[in-house]
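ping. complex inputs:
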Amino acid sequence: MLEALRARPWTWSFVGALGAFVATIATLHGQGAAGVATAALALAVFMVLAGIGQMFVITLGPGNIDLSLAANIGLASAVSMTVMNGSDAGIGLGLAAAAGCGLAIGAANYLLIWLLRIPPIIATLSSSFIIQSIDIAYGRGLQIKPPPGFADFTSLQIAGLPLLALLTMLFTVAAAVLLRRTIYGRWVLATGQNAHAARLAGVAVGRVRAITYMVCGVLGGLDGALLAGYFRGANVDIGNEYLLASIAVVVVGGTSVAGGEANLPGIWGASLFMVLLLTMLNTFGAGAGARLLFTGLIIVAVIAFGGGRKTA
Amino acid sequence: MTAAGSDSVSLSGIEKRYGAARALDGVDFAIGRGERVGLIGHNGAGKSTLMQILAGAVTADAGRISVADEALDDYSSRRARQHGIRCVFQELSLCPNLTVAENVRIFHPALRGFGGQKKAARLIGEMLDGIFPGHGISPGDLVRDLAIGKRQMVEVARAFTVVAEPLRLVILDEPTSSLDAQASAQLLTHMRRAADAGLGLILISHVLAEVLGHVDRIVVMRDGKVAAAGPVQDFDRRKLVRAMGGEEMPPGQRSSGQRLREGAVCVKARPGRRGGAKELVAHQGEIVGLAGLAGHGQTALLRQVFEASSHGTTFRSRPAAFVAGDRQTDGVFPRWSIAENITIRSLKNLRRGGLVSPGREKALAASWKDRMRIRTPEMKNSILSLSGGNQQKALFARALASEAPIILMDDPMRGVDIATRQDVYALIRSEAAAGRCFLWYTTETDELLHCDHVYVFHAGAIVADLAGADVSEEKIIHLSFQEPA
Amino acid sequence: MTARAPVRLLRSLLPAFSLALVVAAIAWLNPRAMSYFGFNLMLSLALPIALATVAQMFVIAGSELDLSIGSFISFCGCVVATWLDQSPLLGAAILLGGVLVYAGVGALIHLRNLPSIVVTLGMSFVWQGLAILVLPRPGGAAPDWLQTLMSSKPPFLPLPVIGSLLLALVCHLLLMRTGYGAVLRGAGGNATAIGRTGWSLLKVKMALFALAGLFGVLSSLALIGISTSADPNIGSNYSLLSIAGVILGGGEFVGGVVSPVGAVIGGLTLTLAASPLLTFLHIPPDWQIGANGALLILVLAARARFSRPEAA
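pong. complex structure:
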């Protein structure tokens, strides 16, 4: 049993999530268990969306990563709120604007990588600086609240489960199908394993990379809009924790950082784990320092236990 | 010149298992001072494993290693080197980001401290001059800037350098696979000199001519055991092939050249950008060979054709499929199953309703498993579970399954066993008969006999176009050194 | 292969060229900055940045990446401004302990075959949390000897310049001229080969990370000496800055291709470009971050002109 679990390190994230949940409930003396679970699911959604986008990029192969995700989310939150302009009629347009903004960011990232041959880490890092500046200048003094319909939508629950979580779970299934059963998905996995061999096998490596960065951008954009809706307002820093979180949930969830292998259920497990961990620490009354310390140690421990890339 | 003797290195009763597979099943082997032993066998015979054990890179499950009648316990790479045993493996062990001299320096820990760099540079320079006169390599060159042939030369020369540790035995595992004819000859000559000076040498090679012409004793391995052994005079080509478990190619399979230049033109390519140089023309249903010294433009031409076909700018825009020679870097997707590796080029045809159908994928993989006779219990297994030869078969299946009318082959049979080769040759012939066009670059003249005609390359250009019936080893070699007009 | 020599020469000169370009731009924008005093001021943060860049260089030499160096420098900075000042022995012991932990991280990464991006990501949380626990609010005081050292004004050349020259020289000798330095780099180029020759890959990895930790400590010392007090976020930019510096200096993410001299030059270039240059260009503060990103892109685009094409 231990071997089976160990062979799938991402299952530990679900185990860990459960453990953190139990510890939290125990401290609260059994009260509010449903509330904790619901809140965790709701918050996990935002991590999952960012994580899925990051996962696609990371799967492209070693060195591929999107460090502009946080800035993207921040800008998208401002853009979506501005376009929606507080009215329900503007929801569709606002979402489209956020997605479009993310798409443009993804395309710009890829252009930097492809045209200027800048390594993705640096390219997305540089673009994150630029996006941040745009966001600061654009969003200065922005006070627009989300339209009431949109805000309600992000908090809507069905039988205790957040609607957003259900939709995101469906989306995760769709992403898994995309990865394994479409030509695009196979091409991503091939490129990640060996880009050179992929090219020789007829894969349009450049196109695959471009599409993937844009997909990640769009997911970041949508995430920003949803976050603005859930937290009732946009701000520059709304995406900051999601940069490191997106990478963490991808890897703790079992996707290989070397590329070519992706794990979607693991992203849910890892997101729930991270959210519940923070909830647990909050319940214990830990300060910011202790929270960070503990989160970091857990991440390292989980990965160290699971072991790393299998040697070829 | 027997193997026994007080100063010999001997392995006795060596066993090695990898899971359920027996790589070595009780092998005895010995080599004395000044002896040159040729070790041959097809893939999976165990020769590389045996040498890895001798070099200390792998630990045997059972058996004993002795040097000068003294059994050695706790054998490891370190101990092997201390006893003067060195190995030049097939996978190069140079660090590409270091210079030639630095690579020598890290090889000899004794070259520490001040002046170590200069000493290393001088050491390798002298050895390269000694083994490969006219090599053109400078000790300050970064290895990553050197072509693979030159890297091989550095690797070989480095193995022979002596600083603090003694040198008693050098194992060379397919050393000529990346060397051109001139360097290969130089190496084989050096082997004789080294043996005369008292060094033991083991040569693993699949080029039977090399083995027959340049060793004192031959050991043939098959299925983890020694199948035949004796002085080189006892063997000839046919005996060796039979001992290894393969059959010599029957004469009737040589190309008659009848399909020459019929059918529609498939490919027209001119190597490089030289004006007036000869052009390669291939027709439907032809097997066209590319020959000449290694690295003289053949791969470049194949890549050229591939690029052009990918961009749709080739003559009449026919798609081309590529079969790589270097599996690891150019071919295999290591995390995927055998089936996934095969179907990657054919996904468009496997779709049902926009998504790849698992049923169709399975069927395609199964049909190619049969056609290529890939030895595996289950196509869902990881591609890495296959032996090297079978992996190569899977790469062929990938190209052939794709319905591309042009197949480009970049020396794909390097290091592949005879049985696999025969299977693949048969398939190539039948596919060509069905109308496919093959461009086949190979470094083995024997394989060129399967071709309808052969273009010989030299210095990046085509210097000759031989009809199938005219192909012979002597002509090829002669033309390989001919300057382009 | 002699035809390659000019290209290689150009490539190795590129970091110096970038630095010259930035200096020339500053000289053109504000000629009065070209003085001892001017350089001393503009390069005030050069030593901490250069030291951090060198630390990152050691990790990158082993084909790994350290995303935690910034928060490690923050942590060490907080220790320097508190314990090192009040109880020097304890402070020194803690700093040494930090270096040992770094070596331990290297060992963990090697023994469990872990991806360094994620492990160092987790460690960045750990160091950040520890920094907050040590010094919850900005404060503390740099030891007097440190302040005196970092504010000294040697004749002819400003302290940052002398320090950088010394740093470049020492690291160059260490990494490029010694036998073990070649082993350290070689392990990044072909670990199997190094292992087969009998060198311990574990020791190599630990050595590289320990060196990174050591130079991280030195960077924090320099930083606190200049800023005279600390805060738990003081080093937060340094992770990404140091990566950019190594790449600017001609290093590559995999393959063990690094240049100590290039790294120091890269650090200097970033120091100048990050703030002084922008100030002289009269770029409004909102846009300074974005301008940093744009500058990075510009320099790397220039590098791409002379670089060998990225594989696949």
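Chain C touches chain B through 24 residues (CB under 8 Å).
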